[in-house]
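Objective 1b: paired records.
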Amino acid sequence: MKSLLEYLQSLLVEFKDIELANVFRFKSFEFGEDFGPHRHKRLEINFIQKGACTMHFGGERVTFKENEMMIIFPLVEHRFIPHQEGVSLMQLEFMPDLFYLIAEEEGHNLSFYKEIFSKTGDRKYMKIINNVRLIRAVQRIIDELIDEKEAYNLLVLIYYTELLILVSRQMLCPLLSHKSKPLFQALEIIQSSFTQGISLAGIAEECGVSERYLRKLFSSRLHVSYTEYVNELRINKAKELLHNTKQSVKEVAYVCGFNSVEYFGRVFKQYTGTSPGNYQ
């Protein structure tokens, strides 16, 4: 019986002629820098970190805003147009062969991957809102590909497997449903006030539900806790400020809603693997 590492190494042999990613980057685009229309064989994933853009899929126009994600299926014609304020993206593009090989290697038929491609003719894209686990999976892949630390390629395969499962779940059980209305109300409140002193109890009261019920919605629909969700938003904001401004770590901590520099440092390292000072 192969060990897990041996199994992953055998997958890498299968992948020897396939790049782990064709595009993996964090990039900003200014108004006027539009691209397309074009199409490609790659599966394209974009997460909007800041700003907004409009995508043209043939005759359909779709707007994507901050903290929303798009998945564009292979061979779908699309055009990318940043809005006036510009847009900052986390981008990942890769050949769908990666998913096929992961799903069917040695007879391990993870049939759910077929959901991603079986409706390609009808479905040109997916718009995903507030799926923190999916965002993290993409970010982990990009971080590993950029850093290229020891055995990064093995970790990337693991993260691609996670990504495959999460995308499939999203297609089989989308977030949008009438039962999620209080959750969407809560997310709108959090989006507008996550840098302030907000509490789950206060948000639940504003949404007309109990704190326990709202906590359950976070767990069942987003698969993260309320605290994890808020911290994810705050850390993404902190990364932006540390990278693009001259504010001190202390200033960034308080601007992003942390009431303790020490706690900010612990959470930042938990999410990024490094300290705010080193990141800056």
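Objective 1b, second protein:
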Amino acid sequence: MKSTKGIESILSKLEKTSAKLEDLCMVRQGIVSSADKVITRNYSLLHPDTIQQHNIKIGDGIFLLTKKELEELNIPKAECKLIKYFYQNVDIGSYVPEKPSWSEDKFLIYTTKDIRIEDYQVIYKHLVKFKAILSSKRETKQGKIPWFSLHWPRGQELFEDVKIVSPHYRFKRPFIYSEGDFYTSDENYVIKKKPKVLENGKYILGILNSDLLDVWYINRLTLKGSGYEFLGEKLQQIPIRRIDFTNPKEVKIHDKLVSLVDNIIEFKKRLATFNQFFPKTRLTRLTENAPLPDIDIEAIVKSLTSSSLRTFRTHSEIKYEPKAVESFYLKGVRKGDAKTIILTSKSKQQITLTAPNKVLEYLDEILPVYAGKEWQEIINHI
């Protein structure tokens, strides 16, 4: 919907009668670490002896750790205050933070120039392995940054309490609302309401995610790939209708919009819990008439409580012959007659399953996932 004369007239009027987002909120980029992990470019800065001594590999986390890497460090409780759960660009849903099933948990070591790194011995021993990399940070206007500090940590208050977050690129509904900690990188912008602003943050969010501003974004932002660039300077210029809080009619409109956004947030939160059952899909981003994607039956089964689960061993309607098989590793699955499935092994053994049609349909879909698995494991888990 690029500008026509009529649309341009509407947008110009909107801009003249509205404040700018920067009048209501601070808009800041997220954290720049200088070294999330070891990459080809910085690996060469490490001394060969250091690499050998600590078995350092490309891909190893420095400031940004996987859950496994964090567990292996075994950080004591006193040092855990420097560890922050980290949200990546993919974790920004629609209206709410949203962890998709394919996004790995990440954790940030949040260090600044003001801490005494010697007071955090486990974290110090981890970071000092990469000192040659961390010492290569460029100087800032404030001078040289200590080797152990994030390059641009920003202030912790930016990532805590109530805030709106926007990714760099998105096509529709790019803004989310977060009331808890939300530490994130410079891939995203954090928007925090200024102290004397009376408008509720959810009112601002509702405006930012509105159909009207979708038109503004299409005509005022740069299209890049499959989305528009929501960069700092442009974000600050977004028009926001201010509320005259001495006017009861305007207050009523404000409160109504806040209530609607509240309902949307709660709905999106509930909807996001079902993402785990739809591989590679974000239910919260589906358009109104979009078809529902294929469901992951195995994920549904795994989500059930132990009291609700039935395995081959315990399901009253599943029968299999022979009962005793040795060294059976599943090779293939094929349909037998109308009520059976036949399993084959590499050694050409066969097991025949008998069950009701609905159960067979499920087994026919799920069993191929277990190809190469031993029979005992299969009957204990399916």
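The longest helix spans residues 248-272. The radius of gyration is 27 Å.
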